[in-house]
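Quick one, T. Sequence first:
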Amino acid sequence: MELPEINLPQDYNYSATIEGVMINPHDNGVGATILSFSDEITGDLIVKVCAMIHDAQTDSYDVIRDLEAFSFKDIAYGRDFIKRLPTMSAIELMFMMNATVQH
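Structure tokens:
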């Protein structure tokens, strides 16, 4: 499946990679995108899950806010997290959002 065009806010002052897109199957006007980038100071892999809405005029999606951000010192673990994220259960995601152990 080809990724739709995603428009990031201008105040995102980092170079992010779009890792994936999840469109609501019941309302294609809303969805989420998974972004990643490397923290310039720590080198950690930062993964952001962002809400987005469809712009019918441009047939693209605009990122409107961050929903959650994750930081991974272990880059391989972070990459695995990105792969698993679209199919994670809600419980697993809640555990990750409240994790006290940093990977």
